[in-house]
Amino acid sequence: VFLDINLPEMSGMSFLKEINHDYPAIKVIMITGISSQLLQEKALESGAANYLRKPIHFSEIEEAIKQINKPNRREL
Protein backbone atom coordinates (compact mmCIF):
# COMPACT_ATOMS: atom_id res chain seq x y z
CA VAL A 1 0.00 0.00 0.00
CA PHE A 2 1.21 3.50 -0.83
CA LEU A 3 -0.20 5.73 1.89
CA ASP A 4 0.06 9.51 2.12
CA ILE A 5 0.68 10.91 5.57
CA ASN A 6 -1.86 13.71 5.00
CA LEU A 7 -5.34 12.33 4.31
CA PRO A 8 -8.56 14.35 4.16
CA GLU A 9 -10.50 12.32 6.72
CA MET A 10 -7.81 11.05 9.07
CA SER A 11 -4.09 10.96 9.71
CA GLY A 12 -2.08 8.64 7.50
CA MET A 13 -0.14 7.62 10.62
CA SER A 14 -3.39 6.54 12.30
CA PHE A 15 -4.42 4.61 9.20
CA LEU A 16 -0.97 2.96 9.12
CA LYS A 17 -1.55 1.67 12.64
CA GLU A 18 -4.97 0.31 11.65
CA ILE A 19 -3.53 -1.47 8.61
CA ASN A 20 -0.73 -2.98 10.68
CA HIS A 21 -3.19 -4.15 13.33
CA ASP A 22 -5.86 -5.56 10.99
CA TYR A 23 -3.61 -6.77 8.13
CA PRO A 24 -0.09 -7.35 9.48
CA ALA A 25 1.12 -9.05 6.28
CA ILE A 26 0.47 -5.95 4.17
CA LYS A 27 3.49 -3.74 3.58
CA VAL A 28 2.93 0.03 3.66
CA ILE A 29 5.11 2.66 2.02
CA MET A 30 4.40 6.09 3.43
CA ILE A 31 4.60 9.08 1.09
CA THR A 32 4.67 12.76 1.94
CA GLY A 33 5.63 16.19 0.76
CA ILE A 34 6.81 17.05 4.26
CA SER A 35 10.56 16.88 4.76
CA SER A 36 10.96 15.78 8.37
CA GLN A 37 13.45 13.30 9.75
CA LEU A 38 11.35 12.96 12.91
CA LEU A 39 8.22 12.13 10.92
CA GLN A 40 10.15 9.58 8.87
CA GLU A 41 11.48 7.90 12.01
CA LYS A 42 8.01 7.84 13.55
CA ALA A 43 6.50 6.27 10.41
CA LEU A 44 9.15 3.56 10.28
CA GLU A 45 8.83 2.87 14.02
CA SER A 46 5.06 2.62 13.54
CA GLY A 47 5.49 -0.16 11.00
CA ALA A 48 5.94 1.50 7.62
CA ALA A 49 8.10 -0.62 5.33
CA ASN A 50 9.55 2.48 3.69
CA TYR A 51 9.11 6.25 3.46
CA LEU A 52 9.27 8.33 0.29
CA ARG A 53 9.23 12.10 -0.12
CA LYS A 54 7.37 13.86 -2.94
CA PRO A 55 8.01 14.43 -5.72
CA ILE A 56 8.54 10.72 -6.19
CA HIS A 57 10.29 9.37 -9.25
CA PHE A 58 9.43 5.99 -10.71
CA SER A 59 12.92 4.69 -9.94
CA GLU A 60 12.35 5.43 -6.22
CA ILE A 61 9.07 3.50 -6.25
CA GLU A 62 10.73 0.61 -8.05
CA GLU A 63 13.60 0.52 -5.54
CA ALA A 64 11.22 0.70 -2.54
CA ILE A 65 9.25 -2.28 -3.86
CA LYS A 66 12.46 -4.24 -4.49
CA GLN A 67 13.61 -3.56 -0.92
CA ILE A 68 10.31 -4.78 0.51
CA ASN A 69 10.44 -7.97 -1.54
CA LYS A 70 14.10 -8.66 -0.77
CA PRO A 71 14.45 -11.63 1.60
CA ASN A 72 15.80 -10.73 5.01
CA ARG A 73 19.13 -12.53 5.34
CA ARG A 74 18.60 -12.90 9.09
CA GLU A 75 15.53 -15.05 8.34
CA LEU A 76 17.51 -17.51 6.17
Q: What keyword list fits this structure?
A:
single chain; about 80 residues; alpha/beta; 3 helices; about 40% helix; globular
Descriptive account of the structure:
The chain is 42% helix and 14% strand. Helix 2 links the parallel strand 2 and strand 3. Strands 1-2-3 form a 3-stranded parallel sheet, with helices on both faces. It has 76 residues and is of the alpha/beta class. The chain contains 3 helices and 3 strands, in the order E-H-E-H-E-H.
Tally of DSSP helical segments = 3
Q: Which class of secondary structure composition applies to the elements?
A: alpha/beta
Report low-confidence residues grouped into runs of 5 or more. Answer: none
Helix fraction?
A: 40-55%
Spatial strand arrangement across the major sheet: 1-2-3
Order of helices and strands: EHEHEH
Round the Cα radius of gyration to an integer and report it.
13 Å
**Please, what is the average pLDDT?**
91
Major sheet characteristics: 3 strands, parallel
Shape, per Cα inertia axes:
globular
Intertermini distance: 26 Å
Strand % is 5-15%
Count every beta strand, where a strand is a DSSP E run of 2 or more residues. Answer: 3
